[in-house]
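Q: I'm building a small set of examples for a reading group on sequence design. Run inverse folding on the following structure and report the sequence directly after it, with nothing in between.
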């Protein structure tokens, strides 16, 4: 008999196991996105591989490991193996990344190679992770009590997952790096494995296979035809649909909640944690009540039906309610207060559905359990079905439903799928079932272990089911379209009501974008729930500065790479330079070039249709890492560094990678925002850039006489800027479009352009002394910037920085003495000083 007194201890082991697993998941996804990119294709491959490994592990263990092995020793070995593989992935990633870069290509070949890399890294450890629940399930029998303990183990694993998600997102990766986070996870694996070995030495284990092997197989086995006749097949299909709707909803909700809260790493950790909390609560409650097979099937059906209401509730809150809550995040005195508010709003939206999905798993276990089964096959089969559904739901929603029909219609599909899955369980349960007499002349070994039944039509059951399906249909119809105000202004939507006309909204593979127009004719391009570019004077000034400095300062600019399309103004400023022969725009979201070409063509010189311009739809880091091309200049204007994943374009390793793709005499320019940021994040961006480009120059852009944002210019070699030569160039006929572009932003000469000088490394070193360098292994910037996204301290940051810039840049500029003196005077009298 199983040593029951040790069962509660196993719950705590699963808590540790789940905590380690979520830390690994976050770390591995971060490491692999650096290698294969963070586009939707890469993320889909990573998620599919991760969950596919879990599915394989749950199916393979009962077939690969004999039930005669003590389950706790098997479980301990699995945990130890996960720890070893975690270390191998951490230290082997540079080798894997190098091999990938050497073989990566375009199109289907690239997708295939990405999948191979993800499989090499993720399949071995995730197979072991997926095998842990089936392994330990052999220590309990497939009885109602045993199945309830499986539900508790599952719930404990989820509780650990919550702790791991919060620990990784809010502490380990914010304060330390992927190395420390991995070491913490490995220590947890070692502790769990050691405890499991210790308990295995004291706890008895009865091999249920001995009893099974001593008699002929009966129809109670899950895989038998008789088992399917009892409805087990419909249970597996139901739990698969449950997994599908769960992950589909998580994809939609994460996307929409990131608009409400800001798409920071903290937001993603928060949403994942709340979702896991709901799963844990639901699985624990269901484990306490799941004691009868038929009752479990009815409860599973009602859970799926109630999910229709939960999804409709979430849809209403996300589109009709939360958008208009009277909240202004900028008035908060601390980001931690905002996180508390976000936690409450996330619980309000996500928790009802997550609880019901969490309850579905133990109910499905109880619905197919019979005492003469191998508990490992029982747990593995149900877990695998749920995971397969989850893979289908996440990939189909990300790649098909949202880009094709939008998030609101995707939620309608989820409601309908939940209703259909409930029908699978409730239709037999609500039918009138009469026992058939047993056949007396059968041998005992071949008799059906459960009383056979015949089903007859039930009027009351039909009425209930019809009413339930009609209600589900009405709930699906109640889902409203995604409001353009939310897409445009995100967390500030309630404060922007009536301020602009939203003239375009689009949901793409990687982002949700919008275009708005103000009453004065100003157009704004919105991404990640905020204005990313516009035709406002201060924004046009920055975007044109970024583009024209990229082409005017280097010795030659025949070939230029633009990172991030946005409104296309920077790319357009590059394109009008007559020396340019080939311009490549690397843009991750396919919608953006289409939107730009339609709505901002008069501001960006119709850049997307320019025959010299070629748009590459790819994660910019992945493009730079895998291309064999070299450029005369690279300009980068990515999303805000607080947006999850954007910090990968601000690391020292990425800047070195970009520098290696520059020709001699080439330059890299970078946009650095001062608004919606904090001093720590700005220092990190500048210090990291200047570490790679020690001869770099900082240029300032002001609004109303105060600091607004910056342009960083990093030359491959030491440079001097010939102001007279550039002024003469701007007067040549072929440069008329460039000169006109500069005049439109108030710059009538090269002196106006270069009077924005705001410092170099020798000047700023004292200010940057405490700056944290942003590396691939820590992505420190996204954690620093994530604490400042609701701040408006641009003027304070700029003024503080300029206190350290007192030396005249005599050696930076050349020209006539009069030109130099005029320029230096303009620099001293520039706005913001």
């Amino acid at each position: 008999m199983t040593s029951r007194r040790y069962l509660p201890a196993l719950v705590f082991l699963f808590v540790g196991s789940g905590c380690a697993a979520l830390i690994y998941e976050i770390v591995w996804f971060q490491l692999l996105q650096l290698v294969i990119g963070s586009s939707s294709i890469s993320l889909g491959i990573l998620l599919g591989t991760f969950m596919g490994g879990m599915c394989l592990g749950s199916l393979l263990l009962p077939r690969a490991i004999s039930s005669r092995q003590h389950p706790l020793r098997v479980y301990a070995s699995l945990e130890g193996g996960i720890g070893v593989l975690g270390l191998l992935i951490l230290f082997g990633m540079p080798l894997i990344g190098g091999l990938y870069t050497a073989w990566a290509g375009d199109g289907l070949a690239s997708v295939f190679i990405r999948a191979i890399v993800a499989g090499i890294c993720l399949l071995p450890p995730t197979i072991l992770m997926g095998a842990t629940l089936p392994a330990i399930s052999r220590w309990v029998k497939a009885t109602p009590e045993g199945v309830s303990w499986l539900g508790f183990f599952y719930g404990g694993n989820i509780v650990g997952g919550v702790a791991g998600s919060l620990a990784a997102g809010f502490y380990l990766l914010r304060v330390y790096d992927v190395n420390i986070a991995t070491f913490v996870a490995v220590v947890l694996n070692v502790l769990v494995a050691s405890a499991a070995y210790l308990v295995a030495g004291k706890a008895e284990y009865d091999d249920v296979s001995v009893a099974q092997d001593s008699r002929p197989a009966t129809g109670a086995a899950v895989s038998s035809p008789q088992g399917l006749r009892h409805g087990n097949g419909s249970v597996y299909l139901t739990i698969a649909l449950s997994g599908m709707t769960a992950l589909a909803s998580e994809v939609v909700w994460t996307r929409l909640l990131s608009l409400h809260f800001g798409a920071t790493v903290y937001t993603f950790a928060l949403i994942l944690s709340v979702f896991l909390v709901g799963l844990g609560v639901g699985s624990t409650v269901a484990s306490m009540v799941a004691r009868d097979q038929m009752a479990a099937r009815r409860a599973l059906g009602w859970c799926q039906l109630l999910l229709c209401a939960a999804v409709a509730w979430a849809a209403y809150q996300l589109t009709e309610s939360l958008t208009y809550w009277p909240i202004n995040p900028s008035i908060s005195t601390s980001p931690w207060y905002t996180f508390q508010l976000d936690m409450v709003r996330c619980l309000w939206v996500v928790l009802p559905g997550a609880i019901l999905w969490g309850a579905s798993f133990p109910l499905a276990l109880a619905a197919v359990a019979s005492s003469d089964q191998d508990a490992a096959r029982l747990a593995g089969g149900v877990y695998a079905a749920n995971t397969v559904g989850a893979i289908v739901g996440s990939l189909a929603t990300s790649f098909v439903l949202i880009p094709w029909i939008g998030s609101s219609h995707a939620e309608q599909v989820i409601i309908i799928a939940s209703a259909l899955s409930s029908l699978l369980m409730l239709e037999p349960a609500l039918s009138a079932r009469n026992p058939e007499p047993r056949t007396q002349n059968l041998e005992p070994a071949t008799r059906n272990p459960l009383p056979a039944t015949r089903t007859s039509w039930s009027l009351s059951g039909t009425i209930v089911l019809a009413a339930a399906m009609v209600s589900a249909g009405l709930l699906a119809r109640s889902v409203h379209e995604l409001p353009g105000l939310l897409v445009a202004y995100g967390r500030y939507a309630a404060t922007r009501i009536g301020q602009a006309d939203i003239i375009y909204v689009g949901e793409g593979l990687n982002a949700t974008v919008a275009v708005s127009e103000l009453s004065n004719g100003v157009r704004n391009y919105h991404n990640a729930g905020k204005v990313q570019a516009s035709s406002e004077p201060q924004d046009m000034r920055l975007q044109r500065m970024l583009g024209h400095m990229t082409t005017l300062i280097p010795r030659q600019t025949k070939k230029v790479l633009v990172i991030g399309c946005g409104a296309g103004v920077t790319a357009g400023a590059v394109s009008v330079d007559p020396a340019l022969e080939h311009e490549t725009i690397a843009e991750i979201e396919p919608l953006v070039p289409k939107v730009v070409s339609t709505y901002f063509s008069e501001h960006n010189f119709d850049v997307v249709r320019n025959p010299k311009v070629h748009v590459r739809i790819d994660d910019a880091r992945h493009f730079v890492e895998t291309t064999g091309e070299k450029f005369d200049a690279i300009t980068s204007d990515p999303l805000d560094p607080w947006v999850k994943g954007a910090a990968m374009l601000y690391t020292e390793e990425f800047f070195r990678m970009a520098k290696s793709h520059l020709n001699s005499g080439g330059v890299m320019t970078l946009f650095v925002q001062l608004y919606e940021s904090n001093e720590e994040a700005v220092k990190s961006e500048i210090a990291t850039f200047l570490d790679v480009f020690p001869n770099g120059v900082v240029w300032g852009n002001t609004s109303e006489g105060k600091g607004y944002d910056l342009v960083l210019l990093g030359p491959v070699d030491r440079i001097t800027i010939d102001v007279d030569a550039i002024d003469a160039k701007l007067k040549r006929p072929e440069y008329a479009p460039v000169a006109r572009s500069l005049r439109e932003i108030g710059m009538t000469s090269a002196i106006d352009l270069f009077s924005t000088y705001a410092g170099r490394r020798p000047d700023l070193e004292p200010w940057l002394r405490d700056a944290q360098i942003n590396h691939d292994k820590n992505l420190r910037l996204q954690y620093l910037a994530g604490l400042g996204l609701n701040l408006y301290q641009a003027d304070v940051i700029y003024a503080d920085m300029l206190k350290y810039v007192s030396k005249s840049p005599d050696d930076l500029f050349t020209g006539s003495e009069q030109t130099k003196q005029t320029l230096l005077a303009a620099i001293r009298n520039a706005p913001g000083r």
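Confidence is low (pLDDT under 50) at residues 210-229, 434-453.
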